[in-house]
Helix-turn-helix domain-containing protein
Amino acid sequence: MSEFAKLLKEKREEKGLSLKDISSNIKVSQHYLEFIEKGEYTKLPSYVHAYGFAKAYCEFLGLNFDELKSIFDEECKKEDFERKFVRIESDEIIQKEVNLKNIHRAIILFVVVLVLILGVVYYFLSVNKKKLSQKKDVIITETVAENITKYEDVIAANETESSSMEIDPAEILEKIKEKKLLDNETKHKVTLIFNDICWVNIKIDNSSVLDFIAEQGTKKEIKFKKYFLIDIGNAAALTIKYDNITFSRFGGYRQPVKNLYFTVNEDNYLMYEKIK
């Protein structure tokens, strides 16, 4: 545990307060307060968040943040957040290359499987047709009375056997499409709320782009799998909600901000950085 975090935790326990009590008073998520108490500052969305939340927490406990700022600065550095984003960006590029290779392999595998399925269908239909023809030839050589009964039995048995062995390629393709749709449904959802007019440009998962003018009171819901990148013409107009957590104050009034990169980490927390 870091020295700064240790001081906060000891002071909180001395006052008999829980993290939930602190969270409700300073309006900071309990998850973020847990990161601060563990000294895990880089798990917060940005250096600005880490600095602001730590200062609010410190002052609520009655501690002088200015006196402790030198300790905080040694443990929480801006460059730590910059290195973290470079790693995320690099991982994203590598992941895109891996995804392209996986798509090519999936297409080849799909074609091979489809050809095998059609071959199996043709084989079973040919075998069933041949068996039916042979059974009819045997029945014709028997007596007329036996022929009527046995022919009906053979036809009924053959229809049951054929129906149980029949494979429908269209049905198999439909199931494959349904599986792909289910795989694509795993997406994160955020709500954009605008309290003033501004222009907006959003790139989602490097595939879809939204470009529009938001009016005051506009609410827009977007879904993404990995990330979204947003440019806005009025930084103070935008508020983002994700999983009961609110993000705002991205800049000054009428100040344009570009390249705000949002993603969800392994703990299902929404994080963002401003990239160049």
Notes: The chain has three domains: 3-76, 100-183, 187-274. The chain has eight helices and nine strands. Residues 23 and 29 are 6 Å apart (CA to CA).
